[in-house]
Amino acid sequence: MGKYNIENLLDRTEINIDSHHISTQLHNKVVMVTGAAGSIGSEIVRQLVKFKVKQLILVDNAETPLYNLNLEIGDSTNSIEILYKLGDIRQKERIKAILAIYNPQVIFHAAAYKHVPMMENNPCEAVLCNIWGTLNLAKCAIESGVKRFVMISSDKAVNPTNVMGASKRIAEMCVQMLNSEQKTQFITTRFGNVLGSNGSVVPLFKQQIEQGGPITVTHPDIERYFMTIPEACRLVLQASVLGYGGEIFIFDMGSQIKIVDIAHKMITLAGLQPNIDIDIIFTGLRPGEKLYEELFSLAERTSATTHDKIKIAQSHSYNKKELLNEVKQLIKYARNIDIENTIILMKQILPEFKSNNSPYEKYDNIEEMKKKEGEKGG
Questions:
Q1: Where are the domains of the chain?
Q2: What is the model's pTM?
Q3: I need a surface site. Which of 59, 191, 305, 346 has the fewest CB within 10 A?
Q4: Which residues lie across from 84 on neighbouring strands?
């Protein structure tokens, strides 16, 4: 089978950054990365070792991937000390201990559950990891005096149609809310699908091509924003030095690309012919999946930055007490594996959260549902 580069799948030039500015801002800093062994986290680490940071604290709860990252990078690179720490962002005492020992000035928060169908089937875990984990990490960061906290979010947080996207949007709201009264600068970066990341279409299609097909696509019209892992991580680093706190940085990823077009390209670049050598079949939208994504909602006004590929979505103000109380109750439901009330409360916190192709659609109009139940009871 022929070879191909992931970059060939994008119909645009690669995005670059101001490396000098990033190097200046991160010079001699202690930097912590959560989810450090994942697709995004590990690439952020690879790029950070190119800058003259003082120390890297790499945190992940997945032992084997973290061990593999250690084998790849080692314990020191360019005189940078690198420490590998097993830990779950939901475990307050563990996170507090790591922060107390190493005192990082910057945190890149990439730890998250991200697969839409998996989170649709495990909504309470989505809440506990993506919302409670983020909130726990953020509060610990404030207590330990972290200067800058950079959260990795998703375009699926915009007008979410699935639990994963809704959990990321509530997490965004939490860190924006915490930014308003704290010295820690909370910055959010939001971008779309990353080519080549764990669970993305590229490794899946590659495996399917190697096996002789067929390639499976959910819908002929489904399309997504795409960028390469290095591009996404370069922009995360760039945004981290542009922000003053409270911003949501949105990356210009060009036009959306049809998934079926990626399938055609990959088959062709492998030296084969679509629907002759390798069949393409359509399997139907998965629970929570929508045909296209959005990088910002119509309610979010955007403004430019000094980087032409990065925009800022204007931050909202939140009733801190009300939001914290709602999130506290949401976490309680999730810990009790109360799926129904977990979903209902998520939709109350986010009125724009409308489930798609999901059993949770019945909760989109909860007041109407209660009314009908009341009429039956009467």
A1: 13-195+226-253+295-378
A2: 0.85
A3: 305
A4: 58
